[in-house]
Amino acid sequence: MTDRYAVIGNPIEQSKSPLIHTAFAQVTGQDIGYTKLLAPLGGFAQTVDAFRAAGGRGMNVTAPFKLDAFDYATDLAPSARMAGAVNAMKFDGDKVYAENFDGIGLVRDVVHNLGCPLQGQRVLILGAGGATRGALLPILAQGPAEVVIVNRTVTKAQELANLALEHQSGAVPVRGVGYGDIGQQNFDVVFNATSASMSSELPPLPDSVFDAGCLAYELAYGKGLTPFLKLALAANAHRLADGVGMLAEQAAEAFQWWRGVRPDTAAVIQKLTVPLV
Ligand code: ATR
Fold first, then answer.
1. Correct CATH for 103-242 of 3.30.70.920, 1.10.357.10, 3.40.50.1370, 3.40.50.720
2. Which stretches within 73-174 are classed as H helix?
C-alpha cells in the first residue's frame, strides 16, 4: 500500500518538497505518495489531525507552522528543542515524533557536497532567528575554531550564544555581537541566516569579513545572486553557495528517518540549482 506524506504550509504552492521526495522515492524504490497541504492560518492542528486520521505517515512543515508543529509534537528530538521549531514529523499511533533537519542538512551540504570542512574554521553567522537556532549545534559539532553570531538586535545574538555555550560546555568559543562590533575581523565561512534576502535587503555587514579563502553561504535558495552574495563576490570571497543543497540534504535526512534508506541528493540538487553567476 502506498504510504502518504505531505508538506504543510501557508502558502504552499512554492514548495519543492513534493518534487524532491517523489524523486527520492523513485531512486530508492519506495512506495510513497507526497503532496502539498495548505492549512488555514490557525488551522494547523485540525489539518494534521485529518491527515493522520486518513492514514498519513509523516509531514514536512514549512512557514508559518514550524512553531505550531513544535507545540503539536508529543516527542521532540534535541534538534527540534534547540531550534525551537519543527520541520519534520513522523506519526505512529498517538505519537507525533518531531525533528528539525535544517541544521544537519546545512552542515552536510557544506562539508560533503561543497567539500568545506568546518573543523578549525572561523565561522560568522548573520541573524539570530529560527534559521540560526537550527544551524548552531550542528555547526558547533564540527569543531570550528570559533563561531560569531551577528544580529541587528544584539541581545538576541548574545542570548543565542549563551544558549549554545550551555549546550556544548564551552568547547568552541561562541560570541553574539552587533554589526558595528565586527571591526576588521575576517572569517573562513560566512552564513547568511537572516531573512533579509527575502526582501532583497542587505544586513549592514562590512565587506572585510570575507577572508580570501572564504565560503559565503546564503541559506535562502533559488534567488540567484542575493545582495549578500553580491557583497561576497565583490569582496573576492573564494566560493559562493546558496541553500539548494541544504534543502535537498534536510529532505534526505527526513526521507531516511521515515523510510530507513538515504537517497543520493546529487540529481535533485542539479535539477533545482539556479546558477549564481
Ligand atoms: P527565520 O526563522 O527565517 O530565521 P526569524 O526568526 O524571523 O526568521 O529571524 C529573522 C532574522 O533575520 C533575525 O535575526 C533578524 O534580525 P532581528 O532579530 O534584529 O530582527 C534578521 N533580519 C531580517 N531582516 C534583516 C535585515 N534587513 N538586516 C539584518 N538582519 C535582518
1. 3.40.50.720
2. 78-83, 102-108, 130-140, 154-167
